[in-house]
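S1.2 Input.
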Amino acid sequence: MAGCPLFVGTSGYSYTEWVKAGFYPEGTPSGRMLSFYAQKFPVTELNYTWYQMPRPEAVERQRSQVPDDFLFAAKLTRTLTHEVDAHGWKKEAAAYREGIAPLLQTGQLVAVLLQMPPSFARTPDNRKYLAALIDALEGLPLAVEFRHRSWAAARVFSQLSRRRVTLVSVDAPNLPGRFPPMVEVSHPDLFYVRFHGRNARGWRSGKMHLQFDYNYSDAELMECIEKRIAPMAQRARRGVLFFNNHVRAQAPENALRLIRLLKARGLTPA
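S1.3 Output.
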């Protein structure tokens, strides 16, 4: 367990409010945020790849701003998870593979995150689509985040294990119908945890600036270490841990505190 390297970072890094909050120096332009971020953390989760298809030249520019051992997770584009064209999605999958290729070639792509929407229930059609999508992305390191409780089933976990796909463990408000917190390790190469915050009222509002407005306490982080991170670290070769509570730069502050707590617990932050 102590030898399992844990890569701690945030979901996205380019937030102008992080300058006002003091994480980035005053006047830091968005184009220089990644190089500064990489001085603090060994990994980031790319959010913009959900909004737009990644392009090799843009990904290469990002890669050139960080050390060679810096790692990236990247969200799969929304046209493959939320706004799927039944007739054109395979072309989208091929375009994504091409766009993210620079990180795969250098070994810096730790995972492609398939973040499925809350409406994506475990129906026969959705099961068929997810299986086909995983097939289309074969060769990429895949991790899937379910947001509908129906996917919390042993058969799902065994199928992910067979396909060598990482099941994402989520920390979020425990609301009806949502996928529950899990310590399941479906792929021994990697476990993946996303901290969304526990602002239940914000989640119900549907407003992003409220949804992710949350500051974890040390006690809550230690509970996550003892009940989730440490057990998963016993069963995987490495782990990635991302904070998505980006409002007011709470994510990087919480991530830095988690690193300190992991070290105190005898675990191995990268």
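S1.4 Remarks. The first helix runs from residue 17 to 20.
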